[in-house]
Structure formats: structure tokens, C-alpha cells
Amino acid sequence: MNNILILRPQAQAAELQQLLAQRAEQLQVPVTSQSASMLRISEYDDPNYSLANILAEQWHGAMMVSVNAAHYFAKQARAWAPQAAMPRCRWFAVGPVSAKAISDVVQRPVCCPWRQHNSDALLALPELQQVEGQRWLIIRGHGGRELFADTLRARGAEVTYLEVYQRQSQPPTASQLSEWQQGIDTIMVTSAEQLGAFLAAAPNDSKDWLAECIWVVASARLQQLLPSGLSRRVVVADSAASFAMVDAWQQAIQLTKEV
């Protein structure tokens, strides 16, 4: 529980590492942490839509799926439609971190689930139950998940995607993997894409190490994505927010002490 690998880009992991250090000091537990991203994120120019036209249309509701979506959407809006106003519609996010990023871009309130921060909790919000005949905009990465859009369509909404970034695999080096196997005993993951890329890059001789690690994951869906041999020591956080991941890590410590 003392040597933690966070599968997140450094910029997004910095807050989590800071909170981990503070909580560890409170608990008087020695901790080291490092972050690594299994994905390289870059801008994507959606060939299907003009961003200026998207901004000029009327929407009943809109969401950005992540902080990356907010970042690249804002970048493209500044470059390609600097005079255009942001859609004056209801904006939604999965959790408070992305909600703040979106609000900074659109300068409007952004709604997100209060307790659990995932697509299922978002789709359970009362505001999203009666959407028949409405037009919705989803800003996401290239080839993202379909759950949110499919559910809104099933409820009678018309959904348009605008894809503003793309993911490319960035596997760890052999020396990184060797170093992690020697020292890492806890792995934190908040993204299905990061988890998939990490597991795909892990060599066969790392399976025993991975099975011995404590896994702190951001949702039950991520837990289900873990291979059966790796799912014996898993703690599920309430969300991907840094404070929730730290709370789950503390819970893992308590469970380990009780065993």
C-alpha cells in the first residue's frame, strides 16, 4: 500500500498525488506515488461537422465527456470561431472535475451527479428522463463510448457528436515495467482506456505481480474490466475525483489491516 502507480497523465495526477501525500501524513503511513499515462492525447478535427456551424445551432442540452473534451473544444473554438457564443443550453458532466472544466469554457452552470460520478448516475438524473424531441450535443474523443448517446436516443432525443481529440497508445518501456514490478504494490486507475492500454502492454511474466497489487478503481465498470485473476484485491471509489480515490485508498488500507 506504500508504492502507488497512478494511470493518469501527470497534469491530471498532480492533485491526486498531493492529496495522497496529505492523507498519508495524517495516517502516519509512508507513501510514494508516481503517474504514467498509457495514452497520448492529441487534437482531432472532426470531418463530419464545422465547429462554427455547431455553435450556431440551437441545442436543448449538451455535455463534454471529459476534461480533455473541454480543453480541445475550447482550443478549437478560439481558433476557428472566436466570435461565436457558446450554446445557451443545459450543460452536463459526469463528475465535478469535468464540470468545472466545462463551466470555465462555456461560462454557464454545469450539472453532474452528486454522489456517484459515472454515465449511469448521469443518465439517472431527473432532468434527463424526458428528452423526447430534444436536440443534444455530445463533445467527446474520436471513437468514444456510445452508452450516453444510445440511451438518450432510446428516450427520443436527437444526438449529435462533435469529436475534438483522439487517443493513441503510449505503452511503457521494458525498463519502466521492470521498475514497477520491483516496487509498485498499488495501482490506481480512473479510465477504461488507460486500463485497457496498460493491460495490453503488460507482459505475461507480470501477471503474478499484477495479481498481488491492490487496485483502486473509479467505478464498478472498471472493476468488471479487470481480468478475473486481478480482481481479488480491488476497492471501488465513488468517482474518479481525486478526493474519492484517496478515500478508497484509505479504505484499502483498513481492509488490508483487517485481513
UniProtKB/TrEMBL annotation:
It catalyses: hydroxymethylbilane = uroporphyrinogen III + H2O. Gene3D superfamilies: 3.40.50.10090. It is an enzyme of class 4 (lyase). Residues 38-246 form the Tetrapyrrole biosynthesis uroporphyrinogen III synthase domain. Pathway: Porphyrin-containing compound metabolism; protoporphyrin-IX biosynthesis; coproporphyrinogen-III from 5-aminolevulinate: step 3/4. GO terms for molecular function: uroporphyrinogen-III synthase activity. Its EC number is 4.2.1.75. One of its GO terms (biological process) is uroporphyrinogen III biosynthetic process. The keyword Nucleus does not apply. Keywords: Lyase, Porphyrin biosynthesis. Catalyzes cyclization of the linear tetrapyrrole, hydroxymethylbilane, to the macrocyclic uroporphyrinogen III. Belongs to the uroporphyrinogen-III synthase family. This is Uroporphyrinogen-III synthase. It comes from Pseudidiomarina terrestris.
